Amino acid sequence: MGRYLLRRLLQLVPVFIGTTFLIYWLVWSVPGDPFAGKCGDRRCPDAYINFMTEKYQLDESIWVQYATYMKNLFQGDFGSTWNNREVADIIATAYPNTLKLALVALLIEAVIGLSAGVLTGLRRGGFLDNLVLVSTLFLIALPVFVVGFVLQWLLGVKWGIINPTVSNEMRLSELIVPGFVLGSASMAYVARVARTSIAENRRADYVRTAIAKGLPMRRVVGVHLLRNSLIPVVTLLGTDLGALMGGAIVTEGIFSINGIGRAVLRAIVTKESATVVSIVVVLVLVYLLMNLVVDLLYAALDPRIRYE
Amino acid sequence: MSDPSSASIVTTPPSTMPTEAGSGAPVDAGLPENARREKPRGLLGDAWRDLRRKPLFWISAAFILVFVVMAAFPWLFTGGDAVNGSLSNSQVKPSGDAWFGYDVQGRDVYARVIYGARASILVALVSTIGTLLIGGTIGMIAGYRGGWVDALLSRFADIFFGLPFVLGAIVILTTFNGADSNNNEWQIMGLVVMSLVVLSWPVVMRLMRSSVLATKEADYIVAARALGAGTGRIILKHLLPNCLAPLLVYGTILVGSFIGAEATLSFLGIGLKSPVVSWGIMISEAQNYIRISPFLLFFPAAFLVTAVLSFVMLGEAVREALDPKLR
Amino acid sequence: MRVSKRASGAIALGAAFALVASGCSSSDDGGDAGNSADGAITVDGTEPENPLIPASTTETGGGKIIDWLWTGLVEYPNNGGAPQNILAESIETTDSKVYKIKIKQNTKFHDGTVVKAKNFVDAWNWGAYSPNGAQNSSFFADIQGFADVNTADPDGPDGPQKAPEPKAKEMSGLKVVDDWNFEVTLAAPTAVFPTKLGYSTFMPLPDAFFSGSAEDFGKKPIGNGPVKFVSWENNVQLKLTRFDDYQLRDKMKIKDVTVKIYQDDTAAYSDLVSNNLDFQQQVPVSAIAGDKWKSDLTDRAVSSTIPSTGIIAFPIYDKRFADPKLRRAVSLSINRQEITDKIFFGNRKPADSWANPLTPGAQAGNCTACQYNVDEAKKLLAEAGGFQGEMVFYYNADASHKDWMEAVAQQVKTNLGINARAEGVPTFAVFRQNINAHKMKGPYRAGWQQDYPDVENWINPLYVTGGSSNDGQYSNKQVDALAKEASAAPSLEASHAKFGEAVKLIDQDVPSMPIYFQLQQSGHSEKIKKMELTNVGELDITSVEL
């Protein structure tokens, strides 16, 4: 176990370097001079472009730029944006917001997806089963901006049930609707994973035994069936957190949440490599560590799995 | 996402990511049944026999057939003009003349929806197949070989997994499909497919890998190996059919998300370009007019949902037929 | 030219000639002084793209804040009339070449220091000095000695060579006389110079700017305007407050202003409709569709016109577009009225003149190429020998230009039979880079909004050979000569007359196609009882009453 952990941690190093370089290279190869569009429909003065190019060392080769970036990163300096703000500040304010939103989304996704999955798994092929299938698929197929816009307009503006946007305090109650919108796409996956898992385990011997023993149905489902069917669902939810955090761009825009999705998109378009790489690097780290934790959890959850 | 190290001493199905991986590991239940019959019909033959009896399969297959014909020969369905319009018809509501009304540019929405099937379905289908093939192959290799190969491929997938979709797509598409490139319709579709595949394969790879890990220590594989079956035979005859189910299910849902992803790319100005039509483009064009002309959004969305549903239903039917436990 | 990033790259929100009969619900009662005195409002905004230094900002997100934080020598009245002195006591000249400027005594910067003549001279020298890299440095080009402090890069910014170190640090045309007087000598007579002085580039900078670093200053700017800077939270909000020592014109009547940063203007609009946001300068396209914004906001809707025009420019360097007859044919085949009606729901006006008619000195209706005349267009196209190949209309896809550009392409296709279509370029940066490099392969979206209210700003930069925004490389010697004469004319009237003659020639050549005149659709909350918009369509913060 200890050796396994050490090996996995060591493997993080090349992945970390590989990812940062890949992203740095990608941002670097996004076409377009980052400063060409800065002066509206007028050509920017050469002096301005020279000044910025020199300040951010953009005339150096990508290797030099990347090396400088990494050197600064290890000294805790995440670099600065074109408007001369600290990227570290942006990360510090945006990350907690996105994390909160993603957690709420995860919770909603888990509750709705799981209950839908259990209900339909127990009664496969029924009307309810088909209804859930169609409605969750509808949510997948409709672009997020449509779902978000319609919900915001109806609930927020028309009926005044919620605030149309999320305030800077990021209160939990304000995050329910954005969380639902963000989680809507993954809900179908959760429901279907749960459904299959339940349906399959229902035929397992231990469930048959439990029923034969005369245990009440509630106990059979609640204790025996659910517990054994949860593993794939939990895995899915665990790994989904990273995806939710990285995929919140549209939701954050619609509900005006100052999160990393917005920051990354803006930075990609303006070729602000320091911002993009720094934000994504933290995201990748979170993701890699989550991955490791999930793997270790397996061993803890299921004694049959062992790591050498 | 199970990622139990290179050594992969996994003895049981640690079910996996986006789907029924649990179901995908029909470890031991089904086999004896098959074996007992001792007919030349394999797993696939069984599945087909099973499928033929399912109305769900026939309904979804019929829908898909209609969509495929629509994509191949749109003119069979409409005589309308999907590309040209006149502003004087802008946002005219659905009527007898134009069943689905006219869009902002005064183009016939019905004709556009029909012609849009081609790009949407083609891009989504080809990308899904590509993603499944590449991800599946790499996952199979990683899972089956294990050891350093697995570690290398898994970490490689990790690197791609960390990429934000928008960033990757912008780079790939603007590099090959910039404003001054003269790509034709097919080349652009190819590029869109490529970027979708490049950015989505790691999920499938993980899915496949964990399925393989779960299955490869199963008794029947061990038995096959003991009987002297070669690697190729084991993979093709034993591993693949038993690991296919979760991939199929994931794949069918993927078709739906790819249609949406294609829309996002077009919306950003890096995907398909006019005069090519797709449902995704239509949906994003309707975005600003949801409040006054909801039908602009409704019709392409309805086609999109129907198409996605058909694929998912089909996948579902096939999966159930393939999975002996659910019979 | 200020450019809003969000609506953008385009003209977007900008110079607003505000007749602002602001549709305020109860503008008669003039608001309640008690509410206003310590009142606070929240307005929408975008993240400033540059450090907050006047000479370094050209986009609206930061520009709006700079306009509130600073007061210049002259100001442009909200009603769009001629500029008036505000910080300047007097600006005198006899030959339009040497200007004697006297400023009001004892006005203060936000840090308590006094605004003196040297604060202007030093600030202008800083902005013009090329190693400082100010975006607006070219505005100082009128001043004598500019070439000595601002050197060009011999092979452009991408080339390996660096620009030589400027010979001097200060322009020879600027001279401090005493604390309250300074003298500006221009390189050539320019009648419009005093008008330019209201543009934010010409603002004074406090001593603190020169003793510290410009970068730090840009994070915590110190101005001399009615509003004082408090804090800036990245991507979240900027907080501003009333400057109690302000002595020029009106003080701000309310106390605090929060500029909330929205990424998405529909989010801001939802907040506006539900009264969570007090002012939005431009409502989103989805609200303009079907004129919904008027019914959503009812008496909170504010409609105004701004001197800004949507244009499609021709890449004249491309041989296929070299024939003026072809260009005129394309222009005549566009039905501007139908586009403004169907695409903009009447929230834009079809363009019919070269300079925006709201600009002093501009003549209305002088664009004969802006008419809709298919027969004439077909005839001209035939004379020009038709058009070979595909005509692609380019726009930047990161702002909402798709609908109207597609409509234009469709009309050209239908009316002239040219194989035309519209294509989006992903980002404004790439779009602009191609334009700068003269690599456009078809007509492209452009836009212009005036920097300062004078017709000169609509001719010199756009249609004179080598003009700062003459990206299509249009060149007509007669136009150049007339424009030069007009710029050096002794009076504004004479100058305007000469520009009028130049426009007649431009109208024959059709170097670009004006399509629509911008209108601005704003809205305010129920809380605001009274407000006005400035000539650039921004909220006049000092006019707000609650």
Put the structure in a nutshell:
With about 300 residues, chain A is mainly α. In chain A, about 75% of the residues lie in helices and about 0% in strands.
Number of helices of chain A: 12
Task: Supply the helix-strand structural class of chain C.
Answer: alpha+beta
Which chain pair shows the most residues in contact? A-B, 70 and 62 residues
**What's the number of helices of chain C?**
18
Largest sheet of chain A: none
Our estimate of the beta-strand percent of chain C is 15-25%
Query: How many β-strand runs of chain A?
Result: 0
Kindly state the percentage of residues in helix of chain A. over 70%
CATH fold naming of the largest domain in chain C:
D-Maltodextrin-Binding Protein, domain 2
Mean pLDDT of chain A: 81
Radius of gyration of chain A: 24 Å
- Measured on Cα atoms, how large is the radius of gyration of chain C? 23 Å
> How many structural domains are formed by the residues of chain C?
3
What is the architecture of the largest domain in chain C at the second tier of CATH?
3-Layer(aba) Sandwich
Oligomer: heterotrimer
Spans of chain A of at least 5 consecutive residues whose pLDDT stays below 50 are none
How would you characterize the overall build of this protein?
The complex is a heterotrimer of chains A (308), B (327) and C (546). Chain A has 308 residues and is an all-alpha fold. Chain A is 75% helix and 0% strand. The model of chain A has no long low-confidence stretch (mean pLDDT 81). Chain B is mainly alpha-helical. Chain B is built from twelve helices and no strands. Mean pLDDT of chain B is 76; it is low at 1-39. In chain C, strand 14 (390-396), helix 14 and strand 15 form a beta-alpha-beta unit. The relative contact order of chain C is 0.18. In chain C, helix 11 (324-332) runs antiparallel to helix 13. In chain C, the strands form six sheets. In chain C, strands 11, 12, 13, 16 and 17 form a five-stranded antiparallel beta sheet that branches. Chain C has a four-stranded mixed beta sheet with strand order 1-10-9-8, with helices on one face. Classes of the chains: A mainly alpha (308), B mainly alpha (327), C alpha+beta (546). At the A-B interface, helix 1, helix 5, helix 6, helix 7 and helix 9 of A face helix 1, helix 6, helix 7, helix 10 and helix 11 of B.
